[in-house]
Amino acid sequence: MKYNPIDSKLFIKNREKFMALMKPKSIAVFNSNDVYPIGADSTMPFEQHRDIFYLTGADQEETILLLFPDALDPKHREVLFVRETNAHIAVWEGEKLTKERATAVSGIATVYWLTDFDKVFFDLMTETDTVYFNTNEHYRQAVETETREDRFIKKCKADYPAHSWAKSNPILHAIRGVKEPEEIALLQNACNITEKGFRRLLSFVKPGVWEYEIEAELLHEFIRNRSKGFAYTPIIASGNNANVLHYVENNQQCKDGDMLLMDVAAEYANYSSDLTRTIPVNGRFTKRQKEVYNAVLRVKNEATNMLVPGTFWAEFHKEVGHLMTSELLGLGLLDKADVQNEDKNWPAYKKYFMHGTSHHIGLNTHDYGDLKAPMKANMVFTVEPGIYIPEENMGIRLEDDVVIQAKGAPFNLMANIPIEADEIEALMQS
Questions:
Q1: Are 309 and 371 members of one domain?
Q2: Does the residue 1 lie in any domain?
Q3: Which of the 8 DSSP states describes residue 374?
Q4: CA distance to 32, 56, 110, per residue, from 59 (Å)
Q5: What contacts 147, CB < 8 A, 6 or more positions away?
């Protein structure tokens, strides 16, 4: 791993929170992700399942975690299974977790080789009534691939039909949404790496540069600062490309007079940052570009201050819609008749700002977190309003990552990343 070691105390706390919400005489099982094939003998780079990482810190394929708080033998209340390593594997694939190293990383005393799983699991299932399955119930999930979790669930239901089943996902949404101080520090590190990348490209962008060249500059800076790279597929969209919300081709030339929207950020230790900035390709905003830019910035700043404990996510988005409506009226993009005659299910402002303003962020870019309950301190959200005007060859979005505080305004993890129009211009021309 490129990142520095994480103190196992974080994972110990995370497991304690999960087990405190389990039913009596229940066991929870968490599987690592598969290594996915590309073709021939090629595979995609391994990415650990964020849930098992959250609970163990084990960043390795073929890993299983069992949590069984009521196990008769105390050593089986937390059990980690890892792939058995040997000298041959070390030569061909590199170092894998030994039992001792797995304990050091996770804080779990009982570690078995994966080949012992069926035997140990059978023994523990004679003591339990309920099995927690780790199904993916994120509100944006659209997974078609059968995962290791899916295969395990099928086998478990076939082998133990008399047991009851429960879902780990509601517990994970409740606890993963509120970050521990160690997690906020990791997110801050990801944001700091992102800042370095952004500052690097401010002196690089100019008319004639290609979007993919900007992508390369960012990737260089991210990796040299211990990141694996991008937290998500980067969007580097010049001119009208910015009006395609998930533009990822990044293959066009940046032209004089155009704006450049970059929704791109670094990960660190599997934690995601999420940044959007929009800059003038030639280093100077036109009067109209600056008007629209500052309107977006005002909405972002006001929306940020609304993220306080007790706020409901759905109501927050409605209020941001009112802010955006006012700005669009001021820009002449809407008139009073547009607002008076709007469809309440698709308000007038949606013509120019059609996406949401905010989402949880953490181990996933669109992270776990209860969106129907009031916001709590130490939840981390993005704030990302935008205005998109295809007829003016302009799309502007601005985005920061903020931590909800027990009192007062949220803490902006990206406060040091330039965002004011005058500062952007000054840095690009320095």
A1: yes
A2: no
A3: P
A4: 9, 8, 17
A5: 31, 33, 34, 136
Taking the CB of residue 9, how many other CB atoms lie within 10 A of it?
Answer: 11
Cα–Cα dist 323/331, whole Å? 13
Classify residue 47 as exposed, middle or buried by CB count within 10 Å of its CB (0-12, 13-18, 19+): middle
**Residues 60 and 96 both lie in one domain:** yes
The torsion defined by the Cα of 226, 216, 380 and 427, in degrees rounded to 10, comes to 100
Whether pTM exceeds 0.90: yes
Domains in the chain, number: 2
Q: Do residues 130 and 27 lie in contact, with contact meaning Cβ atoms separated by under 8 Å?
A: yes
Contact 293, 421 (CB under 8 A): yes
Measured between alpha carbons, how far is 81 from 96 in angstroms, rounded to an integer?
13
* Cβ atoms of 257 and 241 closer than 8 Å: no
Residue with tokens 């700005």: 327
Domain-embedded: residue 75: yes
Helix, strand, or coil (residue 169): helix
- The pairing of strands 259-263 and 235-238 is antiparallel
Asked whether residue 151 falls in the same domain as residue 187, the answer is no
Residues 306 and 237 in one domain: yes
Which of 176, 191, 222 is the last residue before a domain boundary?
A: 176
Domain CATH for 414:
3.90.230.10
What is the extent of the structural domain holding 135?
Answer: 9-176
The residue written with tokens 């949590």 in the block is: 67
Compute the average pLDDT of residues 78-90.
87
Q: What CATH code is carried by the domain that includes residue 49?
A: 3.40.350.10
Give the separation between CA 253 and CA 305, rounded to whole angstroms.
37
C-beta atoms surrounding 159 within 10 Å: 12
Instruction: Give the alpha-carbon dihedral of 130, 372, 268, 234, to 10 degrees.
Output: 120
Q: Do 134 and 100 touch, CB atoms closer than 8 A? A: no
**What is the DSSP pairing of strand 78-82 with strand 64-67?**
antiparallel
Measured CA to CA, the distance from residue 15 to residue 13 in angstroms comes to 5
**Do residues 414 and 400 touch, judged by C-beta distance below 8 A?**
yes
Write the pLDDT tens digit of every residue in 379-391.
999 999 999 999 9
Q: Are 188 and 413 in contact (CB under 8 A)?
A: yes
User: What pLDDT, in 10s, does the model give residues 183-235?
Assistant: 999 999 999 999 999 999 999 999 999 999 999 999 999 999 999 999 999 99
Q: What is the mean pLDDT of residues 249-271?
A: 98
What is the rounded distance in angstroms from the CA atom of residue 134 to the CA atom of residue 170?
Answer: 10
The secondary structure of residue 36, as a DSSP letter, is: P
Residue 408 falls inside a structural domain? yes
Q: 328 and 352 in contact (C-beta within 8 Å)?
A: yes
C-alpha 388/C-alpha 245 separation (Å) is: 9
